Amino acid sequence: MSNDTVTCRLLIRGRVQGVYYRASMVEQARELGVRGWVRNRLDGSVEALAQGPNEAVRALVDWAHRGPPGARVDAVQVHQEAAEPLAAFAQRATA
Fold it and tell me: Counting beta carbons within 10 angstroms of the beta carbon of residue 12, is it exposed (0 to 12), middle (13 to 18) or buried (19 or more)?
């Protein structure tokens, strides 16, 4: 991993389940070249782990604040994480 690679955990709240949020985030992340995963949470939020070049991760975080059409994003919490090698961006099961 290069020095400009970052890893961030996102917690997205609002109307973000049942509106194609996860699948749209997978598409967006793949277009940006970001690795990681996204999943629904039992509390109705969506959680994601994003890793890649700083600018690409920042672009995905910006997208997370809007989401796909039909979503209503009320809040996005972002926390930098310790780097761990991640595979291509994918959906995970609800946790």
Answer: buried
